[in-house]
Fold this protein.
Amino acid sequence: MMQSRFLYLVVCFVLLLYGGRIFWQKTSFSPLKVMEVSYAHQRNLTGKGLIVAVLDEGFDASHGALKPQLSSYRYNTANQRNDVSETVVFSNGSFRFESHGTHVAGIIANVAPDAKIIPIKVQGFDGDQDFVKALQIASKSPAHIVNISLRLSHTGRKLSPNVYAALIKLAQSGKIIVIAAGNEGVSLMKNAYTASLVQLSHDPEMQERLILAGALSYKNGSESLAEFSNFPGNSSSGISQTYFITAPGEDILSTITGGYFGEKSGTSMAAPMVVGALCLLMQAFPESTPENVARLLLTSARKVSIDSLPVSLNTFGQGIVDLKAALDKGWNISRGALL
C-alpha cells in the first residue's frame, strides 16, 4: 500500500514537472521568437560545452528544471562552500525566499539548455568586498561567460576602484561579461553607477568583453523599450551606445522557488537572454575569440523601426538580439576565414 502511494506521488511529481516545463517553453515562446532562438536550436545549437557563472543572491538548486544545468561547482562569497540557497527576505509582513537568481538561471537554461551554470551566491555582508570576492571566484572558474544581474555597488554610486579592477581581471581571464543596465528608466550617463559601467566598457584593458543589457517590452507583437529600462541616451561620440544591446526583459516566465514557474521583469531578465544567445554563438564558432563573439552579437543586432522610421541608437543601443542574423553573418565570414 505504501509503495503504491509512493509511486503515485512520484508519477504526479514527474507529470507536474513535465507539464510545467512544457508550459514554460510555450509561454516563453514570444521572447525567444524575438531573438530567433529556434533558428539556432534547429541547427543543434544548445550551448553544449559552454559554462556560465551567475552572480546573484541565491538559487533553488533543487528545482527540477535547473538540476541538469547547475554545475557541482557552487560558491558562496561568505565561505566559498556549496551553500547557494536563496536568500530569505522580509516583505509585506512575512518572510519569503528571494528567487531572483533562480529566475535568472532559468532564463539561461531555456535559451541554452545544454550550457552548464556555476551559481555564485553574493551574500552582501561585506559591502563592495563581497562583489570583489564573487568576481575573483568567477575569474578563477572555468566559465566562458559571466552573468551579472545585480548592482555591483554597495552604495549605489559608481563602481569602486576595487570592483572596477576586479572586472578588468575578469575580462582578462577570457570571459565575456554581461551586466544588466539597470531599472531607473534613465540614460546611462545620467546615473553615476551606469556611467561608470560605460567608462569600463571602453577601457582598453577590458578588451571589448563587456556588454550592457537593456530590456525590451514585447506585447501583442509590438516592440518597445520597457518603461523601467535604462537606455544609452545621448553621449559624446556615442560611447554609451557601443556596447549596449536590448533583449526581452518584461513579464518573462522562468523558474522560481519550490519547483514553480513565474514571471519577473527587469534588465536582470534581459541580461541572461543575452548570455544564452552568446552561449549558442560560442558553440557555433568555437575558434573565435571572446571579443569577436561579443562583437558579432552586437553588430548583427536587429535595428528597430516604428512606422517605417528607424529608432535612434540612443534608445536600443546596437539593437535587439538577433541570433539568425548573427549566425548567418558568422558563417558567411567563416567561409573565407575564421572570425
In short: The longest strand covers residues 210-219. DSSP finds eleven helices and 14 strands in the chain. Residues 99 and 257 are 6 Å apart (CA to CA).
